[in-house]
Amino acid sequence: MTVKQASSGERSGRSGDGTTEGDGATEATEAAGVTEATGAAGAVSERGERSVDDEEVHWLSPIEQRAWRAHLAAHKLLEHRLDRELQPFGLSLNDYEILVNLSEITDRRMRMSDLAEATIQSRSRLSHQISRMESAGLVTRETCTDDRRGTFAVLTEHGWATIQKVAPHHVGSVRRHFIDLLTDDQLVELETAYAPVVKHLKGIR
To answer: Is 63 exposed, middle or buried (0-12, 13-18, 19+ CB in 10 A)?
Structure first.
C-alpha cells in the first residue's frame, strides 16, 4: 500500500487545532441531525408554518435520509479521529495530505496551483497552510525558473523524514477505524457507490 492509498483520499478542512474528542463528537452529531436539506422538518418556520410547498420539494425518503445522515456522521467522526491521532506528531490531517502529495512526486515538488487542485482547496487557503508548514520546516517554497509568477511547494528533508515516520501510524489508524470494520465485499460496494458521486462533483468543480 502506498502512502497515498493510506491517506484514503482524505480531503478535509480541519486544521488540527487541538479540538477535543467531545467537540468532534458533538459536531458529528449535529451534522447527522441536519434537517434543512434532508427532511420536512427543514421546511418548518419558527412559528411552525411551512416555508415551502411540500409539492415543490423532493424530500428524502426514510432510507435516503438514514443513508445521508450515516454518511455525514461517519465522515465527520472519522476525520476527527484521524486528525486527533496525527496531533502527537505535530501534524493535522491537512498537513499529512500535503506531505503525501509531495512525497509521491519524483522530485518531491508541486506547483502551488496543482497542489491546491490535488487537495481540493483554494490557493489562498493553501498558501496559509504552506506558511505554517514552512515554519515547521516540513516544506519550502521555490520560484519556478520558467515562470516567475509560479511557485513550487517543495518537501524538505525534514518533511520527507516526517512522512516516513508518521505513515505507518496513520495506516494503522485508517485500518483500525475504517478498513478493518468492513468486509472486502463492503469495501467494493462502497467504492462502487461513491464512484458516481465523485465523478459528478469533479465534473462541476
So the answer is: exposed
Distance CA 20, CA 80 (A): 9
Where would I find the beta strands (DSSP E) of 63-171?
109-111, 139-144, 147-155
Contact 163, 103 (CB under 8 A): yes
Q: What is the dihedral of CA 160, 165, 171, 173, to 10 degrees?
A: -130
**CA torsion, ordered 160, 164, 170, 172, to nearest 10 deg:** 170
What would the pLDDT profile of 75-113 be if each residue is shown by its tens digit? Answer: 999 999 999 999 999 999 999 999 999 999 999 999 999
Rg (the chain; Cα; Å): 20
Which triple of cell numbers denotes residue 10? 482524505
CA distance 99 to 103: 6
Question: Against a cut of 0.70, is the pTM above it?
Answer: yes
> Measured between alpha carbons, how far is 47 from 127 in angstroms, rounded to an integer?
45
* pLDDT (tens digit per residue) in 171-186: 999 999 999 999 999 9
What is residue 41's predicted lDDT score, i.e. its pLDDT? 47
Q: Alpha-carbon distance 73 to 30, whole Å? A: 9
